[in-house]
Amino acid sequence: MEEIQSQSDLYRSSSSSASSPTSRVPSSHFFYVRKPGSLRQPISFEDSPEWEDTPDVDSRMEDEAGNGGDSINDATATPISPSLSKMNSGSMASPPPVPEGGSAVVRKIAGASIAWKDLTVTMKGKRKYSDKVVKSSNGYAFPGTMTVIMGPAKSGKSTLLRALAGRLPPSAKMYGEVFVNGSKSHMPYGSYGFVERETQLIGSLTVREFLYYSALLQLPGFLFQKRSVVEDAIQAMSLSDYANKLIGGHCYMKGLRSGERRRVSIARELVMRPHILFIDEPLYHLDSVSALLMMVTLKKLASMGCTLVFTIYQSSTEVFGLFDRICLLSNGNTLFFGETLACLQHFSNAGFPCPIMQSPSDHFLRAINTDFDRIIAMCKNWQDDNGDFSAVNMDTAVAIRTLEATYKSSADADSVEAMISKLTEREGTQLKSKGKAGAATRVAVLTWRSLLVMSREWKYYWLRLILYMILTLSIGTLYSGLGHSLSSVATRVAAVFVFVSFASLLGIAGIPSLLKEIKIYRSEASNQHSGAFVFLVGQFLGSIPFLFLMSISSSLVFYFMVGLRDDFSLLMYFVLNFFMCLLVNEGLMLSIACIWRDVYWSTLTLISVHLLMMLAAGHFRIRNALPKPVWTYPFAYISFHTYSIEGLLENEYLGEVFAVGEVRSISGYEAIRGNYQISPDKNSKWRNMLVLLAMAFGYRLLVYVLLRFGLNKNVSGRSLLSHKKSNTSR
């Protein structure tokens, strides 16, 4: 403590330009001001844009209490942070009145209070549950307010947010208690929303279409009801001007910017009208203007009654003034929890007053981010010549210990504990599930959405169709005019092999689109909007028309240019066989994409697998002559090229007769036997068709297992009820 005190004295003497917030400038020029008598209002900035005034929390709670309130509503009427009582005792200038507004009326949202007590999260490392990411955190959030979790990188912000939402990964373990409306019960489906830092959107849909399909996936009920909630979400996130614009753009038209995309991802969760909304880094990759617009929009959303809890790394002064409460973390330790204005006073009490004309968030992170120590050390020579590099001369580790010790011994920490006790002394209204759309409904929605997306996105199947036609025309011109003589059998076998093998290899061009579908699935499955089964069925049904179009167009061109047997039934079998081949290839690509989830490794793996299957298909060496280990078992039997080519050749040559001289003739089976191994049974081609159909479903069954027990294990969150059990086991 002597070292901390000496460092604090050193800092106070060295930062003469900085003083406490209450004395450094007159109250009329104070940066952060509130309306007199409304201490629970968000702090405003004098020069910031005007936003809609938020109803006072106390008045909201009194209204709710009149409708059957409980102790949770009563608890919110407790006195405010002790650090604020001194600062608000003097006269402060009030911000100008906000004009009445012009904006569309949006329905109110019934928020819910959330509180956490002694919350500790450990991540499984080299030793079992050794690394504490969050350490004994306490805090709460009320309806109609914005609570921000702030701190430098790797301080535990996202982990704390996920712990509150019940979405920790399996490698994490949580201790402590989380209360929702005063009870430890879990948050059911639809009662809360969670927005990831990076959300996958569908660029070929408009904003309204994207939200409408999301509503169909999430909500039960009638279509007109879902349209109304979509329009409410669009209004709430200020997306009316972009409602009919494609998210990703089209041709020469630009898509939505990062700020609008971020608001669309939040609007998708608002479709369920959640009581609590968790957002991980809402200002991620946004410029200052987009960030301010985002926070003003979220402030408007909070004024509707929703409880907002989100993480943030850094903010401008205007954005900082919109926060109601702040939870400041560093290395998992809570350095402060309370109202934003009280945080400035807390830093001043600890010996780190915010300098004039400096953003508070910049000042906070400068004091608690250990990365600044390395920057100071690198710039030491430059400091000696040009003065101090920063107003904070204290070592960051000492500053963190000072702030933590000051907070633990302050009245702010005591008031937080008192508030949590009042919030949890009696259970309030438990949140109820809002119901889900049925499995059949979700399959129909995903199928129709896939058809719409695939028809608009040229990289999905239209590009592959063009490539298939170019390949087929090339093969057709190369092998045209073969005739039907016995001498053309070997060349005809080669033509069928090249057509099937190269067309399957060319299908790898669809890997990027399949990876995008998997990312969309993971984004929707993380919030229980979709499932592995409905995703696979919807993707399968949506791809059938395009795969059949590719198969019939390519087959017709190849069939007539090469000059195969002129029989309609044989032509239809050729088309159906190649269609099954494309279905199997699509399933193989989907399974490889699920395993790697990377374009480079998926493409490399598929090329290698296709080459091995082509070598074992029986063209370069008849299957009877292949080495038994490896090539016959398993490659020759798992190669779908083998069954497709064998079925096509049986379709072409079984029942055909070739003349040898003027007297003797041989069957098609005898003619092809020296070039490719086929079965003399006329029903063999249908057995090969059934094998292809079984392989198509088998690969998709593998994808289901990977999604259900592999990917879903990582993206599915744990409920608060499971956290309660882990706390009990402790």
TrEMBL record:
It comes from the Eukaryota. Keywords: ATP-binding, Membrane, Nucleotide-binding, Transmembrane, Transmembrane helix, Transport. GO terms for cellular component: membrane. It is a multi-pass membrane protein. It is found in: Membrane. Residues 73-92 have a biased composition (Polar residues). This is ABC transporter domain-containing protein. It comes from Capsella rubella.
